[in-house]
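SAMPLE LOG
Freezer: B-3
Tube label: C17
Construct: single chain, 293 aa
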Amino acid sequence: MNSTNKLIKTEALQTSLGDEAIRLRLPRRPKGIGLLAMTRINSLIIITLFCVSTAFSQDRSTINNGVDKYEKNDFTGATENFQKSIDEKFENYEGHFNLGDALYKQGKYEDALKSYKNALSLAQTDEQKAEIYHNVGNSLLKSQKLEESIGAYTESLKLNPDDLDTKYNLSYALKQMQQQQKDQDKKQDKNDKNKDDKKDQDKNKDENQDKQDKDKDKKEDQNKDQDKKDDQQNQDQKNDKQDDQQNQEKQPPPEISKEEAQRILNALKDDEKDLQKELRKKKGKAVKVEKDW
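STRUCTURE (predicted):
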């Protein structure tokens, strides 16, 4: 593998797989233009070839300066150089490819994908297309578009089946997707458990409320029964009192012996005499008291 196909590693992705990293292709350095030896050539052809050679030399110098900055981690400066080369000549495979790499290193993955797409339209060999799909897969992977990144790596391997770095990145993306699926399943299980717990809580709450309602109804019924009992008891007591009074009124006066009757009569006579004496003292004359016996 020559210098134009040299690989670099991006920063590590912190995952359950450890401090592993996806692998990115280095920017391309344009190859020079060889001049054909001719025994006979007119001046017009010489001038034309000179102009073409000069223009290409300037473009190559702009791209090479960008690659130098990229290798020094000056990705902003590299971006400016690569963009300048594209502005000067849009049909520029290396310019688009390298611009994608510089944007990728700045975390501008969507912009990088646009540059790789432009490079793909200008690619002339399967090797170039494979490298583009490889870096497209990296940009999608960094954007957490795992399924799409797997598709891009697969396309790259179709064009270059022996590329170990693409196989490595594909394996990495597959593990990432498996882990993501596990996390989603775990999250779903947790959500389902939370839903079940909430249902149980709601059920218990309803049952408790039903029990409280039943207890309340039972207590109210007990209070009503007690009130009825109290009312009935009061009514019974009232009835008993009335019955006692009626019974007392119906009962004949108690019978007394002749001796007891005479004693009472004598006592009344004595009381009458005492009363007459008292009145005479107060008024000076006797008061006749009618006898009621």
